[in-house]
Amino acid sequence: MKVKHSEIAGLRKVFQEQQDNQCAVCGCDFSEAYYNHKKKKAVAKHTPCLDHSHKHGQIRDVLCSGCNSLEGKIINCIERWHTSVDVNSHLDIAYLLERMADYYIRHNVDVHGMDHPSFKTSEEKRLLKNKRARLKRKQTK
Q1: pLDDT of 22-49, one tens digit each?
Q2: Could you tell me if 53 and 89 are in contact, meaning their C-beta atoms sit under 8 angstroms apart?
Q3: CATH architecture assignment, domain 5-140
């Protein structure tokens, strides 16, 4: 069943109620607000979006705008870089993401005990910044 554009707002509210007014991915609360000093009023902290598949058109759930954007970026990256993954198969995508999650969990601790040569500690960054500032001052003299 194809819904009309005019039905989206009402459908989003229904889905939000079914999801206890929370994002289906990160669980943020859509009723959270903060005071916007420019607008001089309280505004929603998380914007609810009715998520849908751009391949199949199916409406899925309500996500916050951040998760909705992230989901789109993930799919686009998979389409571009992972030719072994069938982007039309939610199972292939889920399997890849599950393996990625396992990878992050496995490397939550320092497994190898080595740092990449391009990594700089905050102290090394501070020293480099100071060195560059000294060189710049020296050149302006």
Answers
A1: 999 999 999 998 888 888 888 889 999 9
A2: no
A3: 3-Layer(aba) Sandwich (3.40)
